[in-house]
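Handout, section B. The chain below has 64 residues.
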Amino acid sequence: MIYFARRSFSVAAGKKVGFLGLGNMGLPMASNLKKAGFDVTGYDVGEKQRQSATEASLTVANSI
């Protein structure tokens, strides 16, 4: 009997995404992209939103 090793490759590996707006809708969307393997950097004008993104382990930019 012959067994073949299966490899799992992420389509998102090495792909970078910039996300503007990390509020009620943007933060969950950016987080899902990060979970899918994308390198996500986000920005929001609100300090509270930037802090929430940092707590969610997203990279936050200082400006657009």
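Note. The mean pLDDT is 88. Compare this with the example in section A.
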